Amino acid sequence: MQATRRYWEMAALAGFLATFGVAIDSSVFLLGGVAAAAWLLAAQYRFYVGVRDVRSSLDVTLSPLRTQVGAEEPFSVRLTASASLSTPCSVTITPDSPVGIDDPDGWPAVSLTPDSDSATHVGTFRAPIAGEFSFDAPDVRVEDDFGLFTESFTQGGGFDIRVEPRASDKLFVGKGGMEISAGFGEHESGQRGPGVGAADLREYMPGDDISRIDWKATARLNKPHIREHDVETTREVGLIVDERSSMWDGPAGRRKIDFVREVALAFANSAATMSDPLGLYTVSEDDVQSVRASQAADVQYATIRSLFSAVGGSAMTTRSGGDDSRLSVPERANDLRTSLDGDSSVYARTLRPYFQTMHPYVEKVESSPFFTATRRVIADRSENLWLVFFTDDTHREELLESAKFASNRGVQLLVFVAPTTFFESESTPEQSYDAYLDFESFRKRLDRLTNVSAMELSPKDKRETLLRGSQPVRNRQGGNR
User: Full-prediction pTM beyond 0.90?
Assistant: First the structure.
């Protein structure tokens, strides 16, 4: 229970009357002060009883009309409330939308009074970015009819809503200025044989299964023909999501991690559709924070989807990967440095300074959490692993060495990198453009690695604004030379 300003004003008046009555020896003022104080105590007790009755009788239900919607798609939430108000007071119920959910219409306060003890309201919300969002129980505020006291608490329950990714006009994913529009996570087997998708037609060969003969083509071509099909295969998908502090740059709902969540959810959904084994590894500041080893099970897909709604939350049980006998480039450099110890030849004396300088760098890269996660996924991999990185360009050398490690092991790697310059607000257009050119140079460096494809992941509006304004900037710079 909280007293309002009006209560303290009346309490001060009661105290003044009582004190003034004592000072001038006037029973009228004294009794007036005592009566005002007694009335305030009575009002306080009445409000206490009223709040107790409200808590016991208030029924609040907050529920969505649909529990699964698409990004940018409006959805409705219904609030119903009813209570038996035994004392004169007003009850105001206000739901609070979670961060990342827009309330374009503005949710009005739903009020109950002794004359109107039930109410229903339907509000409209929208989620710009995919993910899972939790609406908490609505806030309730009780106020007495004199405006002397208030009480605030939550009542009822909340709910979760899943916002699925879809083609978004706010998200650019591509390379070299070319945006990709195909579904993330889709893949072909690259193999031919009996299957479900028609691929090619060839003549019948002795030993072929007769059941595979395409009789229509045979009749048309006057020779037995076999129609090859794409073989259905599964591909293990390993997602490594960077959730370190730099991934939280940007405004609420449009941070790097929000855009990453949308694309990563698309991969999770695609893996579930194609029954591909799916694993999730998240990277914190100091360690591999959360590990879900690859599985092809409904509970696995559901768990990984829910984890994306709480990136940076509690870690799941971590299991360590096995040893890998093949060495990365830094590991080979470290072994070479060790092999030079005690060697007094001209060759050793020439190379030793270079490896001594490299040694701290090798240790730093190998101890980094992102590199650790990469090694763990590859150590646990199957024969057909598709590794996917979600990160930004803050830790470039670490990312580059992790990509090289995967490339040297023949792993197919897809890297989504968010340029930091699009999530900063203090840079000038010239600075932002120079930073973007530097990022693009780094992305191309990643993309040139064998078996590696590096994609830019950025807010489309900022990207278009920067590139559209870059031509006048370059012209002005050229004119000043």
Answer: no
